[in-house]
Amino acid sequence: MSRKSVTLADVAKSVNVTTMTASRALNGTDAVSAEVRQKVVAAAKDLGYSPNPLAKRLKGGRANLLGLAVGYLQSSAMAEIIGSVNAAVKQAGMELIIYVAGSELGAPKQHEIKRVLGGLCDGIVLLLPMAPDGVLAEFESSSVPVVAVNYWRTETKLPMVRGDNYVGSRSAVEHLIGLGHRRIAFISGSDYTGQSPERQRGYQDALKQAGIKPVKALMSRGDFTRSAGFESTKVLMAQSKPPTAIFAANDNMALGAMDALKELGLRIPEDVSVFGFDDEVAAKHSYPRLSTVRQPLSEIGEQAVQMILRRIGSTSADELAKDTLIELPSSLVVRDSCAPVRALLSS
Amino acid sequence: MSRKSVTLADVAKSVNVTTMTASRALNGTDAVSAEVRQKVVAAAKDLGYSPNPLAKRLKGGRANLLGLAVGYLQSSAMAEIIGSVNAAVKQAGMELIIYVAGSELGAPKQHEIKRVLGGLCDGIVLLLPMAPDGVLAEFESSSVPVVAVNYWRTETKLPMVRGDNYVGSRSAVEHLIGLGHRRIAFISGSDYTGQSPERQRGYQDALKQAGIKPVKALMSRGDFTRSAGFESTKVLMAQSKPPTAIFAANDNMALGAMDALKELGLRIPEDVSVFGFDDEVAAKHSYPRLSTVRQPLSEIGEQAVQMILRRIGSTSADELAKDTLIELPSSLVVRDSCAPVRALLSS
DNA sequence: CTGAAAGCGCTTACAG
DNA sequence: CTGAAAGCGCTTACAG
Questions:
Q1: Which residue among A76, A96, A142 places its CB closest to the CB of B100?
Q2: pLDDT in tens, A250-292
Q3: How confident is the model at residue B343 (pLDDT cuts 50, 70, 90)?
């Protein structure tokens, strides 16, 4: 511990060259005689030399570091995006560091994100679905390229990669309608992330398209938590004309809905069908296994890295101006939580 | 985007002082006239100045940055530790950056961790339960302080904060024995993390203490996955004298065991009791809710940060030599998955 | 209380 | 192909 780390100068001195030559030998960018290169490389290995990314970047070069700011880590969907970002970064020969912004704690920390990640990294990926208004706007004047991921809350000029919410939700509800359901409830999440309103729009448009009038009594306000799904479902099912199917704005709430239905003695899917959104890992372990909508999380992460790499590499404002939005389609994951409506109940 | 970021020199020039004075005014370490300080602070805010942590640290100072290396992000237990580390770091007025080592991908990346985090941060917390032999040893010669968390695989001289496995497991099995169970099965995880053997040791000692001989037929080898719990249970229950209780080395496998028992038409806990380890969030959402052992994850993270802070601050080798291991007790979380053994089955 | 000098580890021009 | 110089943004001594 506390051993002074070995520097480029140490390596250079050990083989009697300048740091310049050692630098060139190690980076392989410029011409160096094969013999010198070998000696330097061997010495570096010998001494356990590892370049200091700070110094590299300070001098205006690349640190070969990408930064990822995330709001929270608790969901498996977040973990999946992070994993794919990490893989894509490694693939590109760079390293990733993650900063947890903890957006739910109130104070928007954009200043800290910019300071920490902006000073360290060659580019920043923002995975802050819950970032309050104005936070992302701050990054429009970043000194390094920034790409936002899966952000729906407000308008932003930031280049963006995100997964569809509207079409997926619409398809889910169409699937339910195809099963004969007419009284389909929707449990919304908090508006906080902007994704729930998109999902609700898909729900309503699917109903309208099928000639079904969306009614307030079948729309319940939740907040993305399992208990909200539970409570909403209790209220929904207590009506004189309860829904025969429930579409929740995320899996957590769909799972809570299933808890409630079981407690009410109702069978899933025979009595009531349930559809979720997100495809969290818990969705495939519930009983019955939950049908849900899946965003292409891995591809979202991968594309975000590609986009930021293009921005780090390119100086052509024209090209970049065209490369500002990638929206990836969702898909339906049909499992066991939905069934055709029963004739009696549907009337 | 790409706007040159404002430096200390810009701030200094705008109020006609040297960078030295500006630095002192902003850091508040040395004496500066109140008037100058005010002007500098105002100018810094005006210009949107944020200090470059690289430059700070390069000159031998503190970057006020702590690094956390994690192996994976998928489990809620990991997320909980990370969350508490993050909170404790913020509490100390520092910032945390996370590096995902992806230990399962084969090649131990200690070199990269050291290079990236060691170059950037004032200290490193290692949360690498699955790190193969030798990886942690590398960090014993780190240029910055390093603390390991929840590592059990091999011996290491690194200072460490970790949660108990043995006593918790022993208590869990004693709980089962107290319920009258005699044929208690154990499903082990992979030895990879070193935690499973500890848990098995607790299991065996509890049995012996109660005068019950541990038998091979009731010990099944798993790998921490849900499907391993499922398969192991199928085999375990197919015996002529099947267990009346199952203790799994983690919650995933306990949940898999419950899946298998349900599929066999057995009731939990009436026919078979199940006990897990970890208290993952899924444990409280299963049906019936899973009894399990809980490590004090938040406290582990918090203590790890305190320990690394002491190491960053102190230069007294004597003091540090005494401050090298904190082991925190686990506790039982008793829910609904265990019941007294039925007289007939226990014979 | 304030400043001029030097340097952290590396790299980008510019010379040879 | 190799080197001497200068500088990235900041801070630690050392002077005044």
A1: A96
A2: 999 999 999 999 999 999 999 999 999 999 999 999 989 999 9
A3: low
B299 CA to C9 C1' in angstroms comes to: 38
Check CB contact of A86 with chain B, cutoff 8 Å: yes
State the pLDDT at residue A52. Answer: 78
Cβ atoms of A154 and A160 closer than 8 Å: no
Q: How far apart are CA A192 and CA A262, in angstroms?
A: 29
DSSP label of A241: S
pTM of the predicted model as reported, rounded to 2 decimal places: 0.89
B262 CB-near residues (< 8 Å, 6+ apart) = A287, B268
CA-wise closest residue to A75 among A96, A95, A97, A104: A104
Q: Which of A231, A265, A264, A242 is nearest to A183 (CA)?
A: A242
Query: Whose structure tokens read 């559809």?
Result: A275
Which one of A35-49, A188-202, B22-36 scores highest in mean pLDDT? Answer: A188-202
Q: CA-CA distance, B159 to B142, in Å (whole number)?
A: 12
Between A238 and A111, residue with greater pLDDT? A238
Percentage of the residues of chain A whose pLDDT score is greater than 90: 59
CA distance B126 to B305: 11
Residue type at position B250: N
Tokens coding A233: 């479902």
Q: Which of B89, B98, B122 to mutate to test the interface with A (most CBs of A within 10 A)?
A: B98
What is the average pLDDT score of chain A? 89
Chain B: closest CA distance from residue A182 (Å): 30
Give the number of other Cβ atoms within 10 Å of residue B281's Cβ.
16
Kind of pairing between the strands at A331-333 and A325-328:
unpaired
Number of Cβ within a 10 Å radius of residue A245: 28
Contacts of B4 in chain A (CB under 8 A): 143
Nearby residues of A343 by Cβ (< 8 Å), 6 or more positions away: none
How far is it, in rounded angstroms, from Cα B212 to Cα B268? 23
**Residue of A55, A58, A145 lying closest to B1 (CB–CB):** A145
List helix spans (H) across A214-296. Answer: 226-237, 251-263
Q: How confident is the model at residue B3 (pLDDT cuts 50, 70, 90)?
A: very low
pLDDT at B108: 47
Average pLDDT on B74-92 reads: 92
DSSP bridge partners of B95: B65
Proximity of residue B315 CB to strand D below 7 A: no
Radius of gyration over every alpha carbon of chain B, rounded to an integer in angstroms: 26
Encoded amino acid at A298, one letter: S
Mean pLDDT lowest for which of A35-44, A77-86, B73-82, B299-308? Answer: A35-44
The answer to whether B30 and B18 are in contact (CB under 8 A) is: no
Instruction: Provide the 3-class DSSP secondary structure of residue B97.
Output: strand
Residue with tokens 């004047």: A141
* B51 to A86: CB separation less than 8 angstroms, yes or no: no
Q: Would the CB atoms of A143 and B4 count as touching at under 8 Å?
A: yes
Q: How many CB atoms lie within 10 A of CB A171?
A: 18
